[in-house]
Specification:
Elements lengths: L1 H22 L14 E5 L22 E6 L5 E11 L2 E4 L1 E4 L2 E8 L6 H8 L11 E5 L10 E6 L4 E6 L3 E6 L21 E2 L1 E6 L1
Amino acid sequence: MKKHYLLLILIVHLACINSTLASETTHTYFNATCGEIKSVSAGGGAISTLINGDTGALNGSLTPAFLITTNSRDTKTLTLSATANTQGGNLNSIFNVGGVRYIILTNSTVLPQASAITNINGGSPVGNQNSNAIAYTINDPAAISGKLAVAYSATNKNWLLTLTNRGQTTTSITIPAGTPMTNTYSADDEAGAYQATITLSFI
């Protein structure tokens, strides 16, 4: 009888050992989700220059730059556009004539009438009908092989940028130093800061 009792104790003891070993295989998993990043920030470049009072020419080129950041490997589309302020509000300031792109800068101190913009972007400006608005040539943003493709939209008067690069990409646009479009600068243009707002954004 005593032998049976000892055997029973041994069986119970082995069962306890197996239960302890099984509990050591339990795992707990953690995870954290990273969202998609799509951001555009100012990237420097020349954003200020002087206008020659005699000719209306820009003394230096304007080269606003942007830093595009995304963590997505998917193709992204952005738009690059520009607006100028008038008495009638902000209006598209990009247009093209004969394949040449132009941007209209308006006097921020003495706002022009909205009709000054339409007088210029129609392609045949009349000097005394576009006071406080001046047009200058503007270059297409440069494409970056394998990263950024650029196409001008004559319909929307802006640029479509196709981004295929993950990480950071820098782009810029240039308004070259030089004389304004004929009949957009005259003594009717008052002193002040002439400007436009250039915007790059994801669609």
